[in-house]
Amino acid sequence: MTITYSCVANGRTVLAQLALTGGSYQEAVATVLRLVLLRAEPKTITKLGSYVYHTLSIDGITYLCATDNALDAMVPSAFLKKVSDTFMKNPLISQDHFPPSNAVPADFQQVLGKYMVKYNKNQDISKISTLKSQVTDVTNIMTQTIDVILEREERMIDPNNETVSLQTNKKKHKLKKGTE
Fold this sequence. Notes:
The protein is 59% helix and 20% strand.
């Protein structure tokens, strides 16, 4: 899962936004923001096209991100919470409940970018640790399978040795019987 786009909006007005990939998000974002206003729910998840849009609404401000996977809602939720916390700590925002778009610092786009990279990187680390765990599991299973095969081979060899010794004993017994 990758966060590909994020924005902060007041109603339908986008205050700050950043897209990490090419593509036009404006139409889909306008649709999602309209749905958020109609639903009046604090959190929404909407699939439009090939992206899933996650939103968090607090005090009339909507924090939105687009991801390429619908299966994970925890990372986008944590990302939006972090963005909202940072946004609300901004002194310009706290002065006015509904800031005009020019009151949002120009560098908030960099804040969005920083958090997008951070949360996407955490996903990469998580994927790597998952893959390492899977490799370890496969290695353990292979080792157990090899051990079982070796045990079976030993069991197959042992009866042959017993058979050889039985045949030798039989020959010795015949020889003894023949000399008697």
